[in-house]
Specification:
Isopropylmalate Dehydrogenase; 2 domains; binds nicotinamide-adenine-dinucleotide; binds manganese (II) ion; metal-binding; NAD binding; IsoPropMal-DH-like_dom; D-malate dehydrogenase (decarboxylating)
């Protein structure tokens, strides 16, 4: 029997709503496939916790999480708490403390879905964005000065270390070696950002030397964003800094059906610390409480978790169930053009999991 422990952080808004369906799917996998158990502890660390305690998680929160094999996150953020507080005190510390320096975000058009891009079909969307997840533009260096005067200013430093840049690029190239198109596209802005991006480009060139079978493309971020729309079929592995990767992947989600379908894995490749799995979307205050959020991004993040655990057959079970539901087209949430609730869509995925295993 395989045993794994999971720290579950449902979070805010639609986070707990989609997490409930994710946990249901996890239970279905345990029950239908035997031989595997996931012990789950649910943490109530979110914006309500913050309003009560003045912090997003307990003092020793990271110490508590460290002992788990895996972390599952719903989404964080509420109108009553500034976003820089909720994100900076919960998500970013987890990504950093556990050296989850790889943020994997697939851009794949699932069977049963159509892309909003008129002339593109399934073969055109099957790439993955590797986002640097611990440094870059999301650094805590800088400050605000001269507040209340006409000379007020804000300075934000971007931090690109050689160590951090090399390791994300090496991960991207190693991933490309395992895929069919054998290409890495790196996002840059060396014509506009003076220090960090030329440095990034140089390291791209260095690392690319070590992977002779892989083709390298270096595109400016603005052009690259446009290419996501005009020629998505040319991409295989796209590697980007923290901010560029963040922006590119909301765009990536949009071209394959929307944020409700976009998962992500925050990986510590050395497996020294727990990795974290979450949808890329936020807490969606505009639809929270209505029970209509799409749970697929959360459920897909569980499939990514299975891949991380080297259980590709369980990942396939989950993905097949999702695709079967989409192909049936009967039980869909409003973002997919249907009228089903979050729970109904979750139940339908679970039903398909049992169906394929009986
Ligand atoms: P968002 O992702 O929450 O929502 C953007 C739009 O997509 C909204 O219209 C929303 O209704 C829709 N959407 C998102 N997920 C959906 C789903 N599963 N099903 C159907 N529709 C869905 O982004 P936002 O509005 O910019 O941010 C809201 C809050 O979430 C903020 O507090 C922000 O800081 C936070 N946030 C958190 C995370 C995270 O926890 N990792 C990520 C992004 C934003
Ligand atoms: Mn984002």
């Amino acid at each position: 029997m395989l045993h794994y422990s999971i720290a579950v952080i449902p979070g805010d808004g639609i986070g707990p709503e989609v997490m409930e369906e994710g946990l249901k799917v996890l239970g279905a996998i345990e029950e239908s496939h035997g031989g595997i158990r996931f012990a789950r502890d649910v943490m109530d660390w979110n914006c309500s916790y913050y309003l009560q305690h003045g912090k997003m998680m307990p003092e020793n929160g990271l110490g508590i999480l460290k002992d788990y094999d895996l972390i599952l996150l719903g989404a964080i953020g509420a109108p009553e708490v500034p976003d820089h507080v909720s994100v900076w005190e919960l998500i970013l510390p987890i990504r950093r403390a556990f050296q989850q320096y790889v943020n994997l975000r697939p851009v794949k058009l699932l069977k049963g879905l159509e892309s909003p891009l008129r002339y593109k079909g399934h073969a055109d969307f099957d790439f993955v964005v590797v986002r640097e997840n611990t440094e870059g533009e999301y650094s805590n260096m800088g400050g605000r000065m001269h507040q209340g005067t006409p000379y007020e200013m804000a300075v934000q430093n971007n931090v690109f270390t050689r160590y951090g840049t090399e390791r994300i690029l090496k991960y991207a190239y190693a991933l490309a070696e395992k895929r069919s198109k054998k290409s890495v596209t790196a996002a840059t802005k060396s014509n506009g950002i003076n220090h960090s991006m030329p440095f990034w480009d140089e390291i791209v060139k260095e690392v690319s030397q070590e992977y002779s079978g892989i083709q390298t493309n270096l595109y400016h971020i603005d052009a690259l964003a446009a290419y996501f729309i005009t020629r998505p079929e040319t991409f295989d592995v796209v590697v980007a800094s923290n901010l560029f990767g963040d922006i590119l992947t909301d765009l990536g989600a949009a071209i394959v059906g929307g944020l409700g379908l976009a998962p992500s894995a925050n990986i510590n490749p050395e497996r020294k610390y727990p990795s974290m799995f979450e949808p890329i979307h936020g807490s969606a205050p505009d639809i929270a409480g209505k029970g209509i959020a799409n749970p697929i991004a959360q459920v897909w993040s569980l499939a990514m978790m299975m891949d991380h655990l080297d259980l590709p057959e369980l990942s396939t079970v989950i993905m097949n169930a999702i695709e079967n539901v989409l192909q049936d087209g009967k039980v869909l949430t409003p973002d997919l053009g249907g009228t089903a609730t979050t729970k109904e869509l979750g139940d339908e995925i679970v039903r398909h999991i049992y169906q394929t295993t009986r």
